[in-house]
Amino acid sequence: MSDRKEPVTVFCADLDNTLIYSRKHDIGEKKTGVEVYEGRVVSFMTERTFSLLKKVRESAELVPTTTRTKEQYSRIDLKTGPLNYALVCNGGVLLQKDQEIPGWYEESLRLIEKSRGELALANICMQKDRERIFEVRNIRDLFLFTKSRAPLQSVRWMRGQLDQKLVQVYCNGSKVYVLPVGLDKGTAVKRFQNYIKADRVLAAGDSEFDIPMLKAADRSYAPEELMGNCSFGAHVEVIPRGQVFSDGLLEKVLHELSGKKHAGQFKNEIM
Length: 271
Hints:
- This protein is an alpha/beta fold and about 270 residues long.
- Helix content is about 30%, strand content about 25%.
- The protein has ten helices and 15 strands.
- Helix 1 packs parallel to helix 9 (about 245-260).
- It is globular.
- The two termini are about 35 Å apart.
């Protein structure tokens, strides 16, 4: 636990499609590889994001907050130096210097105890889904994952079978997830803020998984397309279409951290 006495600002950021992008996303030619899998570079970050992120780290504690497992997260190198913390498994596991914090995972299991039976039912539903094209994976007894040829159809069907007061069903591309209530990024961010006694939390994310985190933070950043699907408070700032989301949101984060009137003033400093 932190013993720092100066004000601490935490920046909790989703990874995929928020800071980094797979090959299928056009983020321009000026990019750098940040993830290698089976000998291939599979994820990238724009050069501008790289420059901005280094600046952000000078003023805030960067905490990747991702649904990736510890193993999947370990493949990523943002190239800005070692990070102190990361929240993986949708916040169910807290890493410090790539090692699990004792007790955090056990507390996560306690938080989702009331949803245990519904997760077991969800496993059965996933197995029966005729659109499923991948094995059903139980991620450390925290949540379930599979893939579907018709993910929206799979989500609608499972939502009809399950108690949505106990579990939530989401899809991201072909991937389908069932997460218990209590295992969300908003809860994780609040737990982490208390853990290190942070004074303020900034957050950024692009998908349904990130909505609880965006709502829980003091200041948040989301793409325009996500804002149209959910009602947020005034503390959530829209990053408009027409630019790479990671570039736009990090300019806003620097603006917030520095108090400068125009984030564009950073352009000459970092390019």
